[in-house]
Amino acid sequence: MSTLDPGLQEREPRRHATYDEPQGAGWLMFAGIMLLIAGVLNVIYGIAAIGDSSFFINDTKYILSDLNTWGWVTLVIGALQIIAAFSIWAGNQFGRWFGIFAAGISAIGALLSIPAYPFWSLAIFAIDILIIYGLAAYGGRHQPV
Predict the structure, then answer these.
(1) Which of 10, 41, 99, 142 has the most beta carbons within 10 angstroms of its beta carbon?
(2) What is the signed CA dihedral for 47, 49, 51, 53, rounded to 10 degrees?
(3) Largest CA distance in the chain
(4) Cβ neighbours of residue 116 under 8 Å, at least 6 residues apart?
């Protein structure tokens, strides 16, 4: 048997735990995490390409240069993406724009390196587009609602 007045529950408003999260904070976290993952994958991809790994399709023709050069380009892009992810988590506008730049360069590089490993390149391209969307749509300073 309860010692509380049964009408007391009706008179007091319900209190719920609230968490005020800025609009789009989830997208920013997602963009940062995916940028870090894509950066690590691009670094691994670049190292494999520099080492002329048998992982890639043999005798492919590239628009620009060869597999070794694309390995170095992808390695540098991956390093930029890792730096951009930490810059996004720092919460400043530079991180947002640097992340958009790094993801944009990575998307272009992924499309140009399709001959080496097509499905991998398209997957990285899709991730980069989601990163750009998250940072462009939700990366600005929002006023609390």
Answers:
(1) 99
(2) 120
(3) 82
(4) 49, 56, 57, 60, 62, 67, 70
Q: Residues 136, 31: contact at Cβ < 8 Å?
A: no
Give 3-48 pLDDT, tens digit per residue. 555 555 555 555 655 655 667 778 888 999 999 999 999 899 888 8
CA–centroid distance for 26 within its chain: 12
Tell me how far apart the alpha carbons of residues 20 and 114 are, in angstroms, rounded to a whole number. Answer: 43
What type of residue sits at position 85? A
Residue 112 vs residues 1, 23, 60, 100: alpha-carbon distances, Å: 73, 35, 12, 18
Nearest by Cα to 133 from 26, 40, 42: 26
